[in-house]
Fold this sequence. Notes:
By secondary structure, the chain is an alpha/beta fold. It contains 17 helices and 17 strands. Helix 4 packs parallel to helix 5. The longest helix has 20 residues.
Amino acid sequence: MTEIMFRTLTHPAMKPFKILLSLAFLALISAPAFSQELLINHVNVVTMQDETVLENHSIYVKDGVIMEIAPEEEISVAGIRSLDGRGMYVFPGLAEFHAHLPNPDQYGPEFQEEVLWLYLANGVLRIRSMLGHESHLALKEKVEKGEVAGPRMFVSGPSLNGTSVADPDAGRKMVRDQKAAGYDHLKLHPGLDTPKFLAIADEAKKVGIFYGGHVSLDVGLVTSVTNGYRSVEHIDGFLEAMLPDGTAIDPTVSGPFNMNLVGQVDQSKLAGLIELCLENKTWIAPTMTLFERYFGYQPAYELRQQPEMFYLPGQLVTQWFNTKTKLEADGVLAEAKTKPYLEFRQKLFLDLHRAGVPMIMSSDSPQVFNVPGFSIHREIESMSKAGMSNYEILKTGSVNCADYFEESGEWGVLKPGAAAEFVLVQKNPLEDLTTMQKPQAIMIQGKFIQRDELQLQINLIRQKYLRQ
């Protein structure tokens, strides 16, 4: 493992004295949020402002903010701690913009904090949680105050769906209540009729809160997008919108997400839908890996044995196993059915991206065989296989996510004035995406956490859930 060296600067003319970072990282981790002042030397900076890599530069961090990025000799600071990155690469870290923070009644409140460590250990420094619970607001506050280690988070409110929304007026009240409670986003699920949806959309615009999610069958993609859907989750609604006019959809035979209808899709309809998304500034949360694993034809027994499954409660993994094996037993996930649908989604993803429809990195975790943090790297692999470039993939998990919440330049990039949130890796992620799977250190909330501590935390989680 590459060693990160630690030293204290006294005067530019004095020869620095180096000690191993591992002797001092505990003090760094326990320090209050945003309290540290650090200089990180000899790193190659992937700024994400463009594809340029600033080679052999230093990053000066103070109070949780990047103060300066320049060659070492151009930064003059004294009396602060310094790290020697020894040629490692630094990038802004990743975001998981379709996460599901657990509720306290699901394996206890400690499971919530374990999930946060799984994100951090995989270089995920921001999440958008898309199924809200009041405990998430308290957890978010603890992370903001530095009381709990975890990624910075945006939190949606409880689901608005055909069951939870009794009528249009009830939908409006739910919107107002969630905005007043402090949620950052609204999450819509299926089952909404058009009057309920339009009331929710109108009220959300009035109070100023983003909304998006699944596309209800009665509402449809066109109505959702033209009425301000900020994000379409799972690339939902496109298949249905591309079916020939008058096509009847019978949910009892059309399969999950109507995948059995993929052979009826009219590709000529896509151009109009792309134009509509561009006009309305609609974002896509693709969750490619969710469909490949949950609704794909790879057997559940294989997925169950993958290494990341052992960082979760056995009961949860068993639940996922039972869910998928039931679909397998019913013939729903036969390769002949699912492969054409997965190929359609992969092409649709790339067509939307190439047309300029913005994407936000999302894998839907924890969800069936998608383990927090680890699933983002599987999503990255899926996006790469679909044909997206490394730079554009990194943008979906950094720059684009900041743009989504209209916080461009505040985070997701490495430049003076931006949040000091970044990940150190051994290779250039613009050339080797797999290097991001093993962060050597992260900077979050003004705290520098090295790989030893990240590995220790997830090892403790694995030990807790050790299965015979």
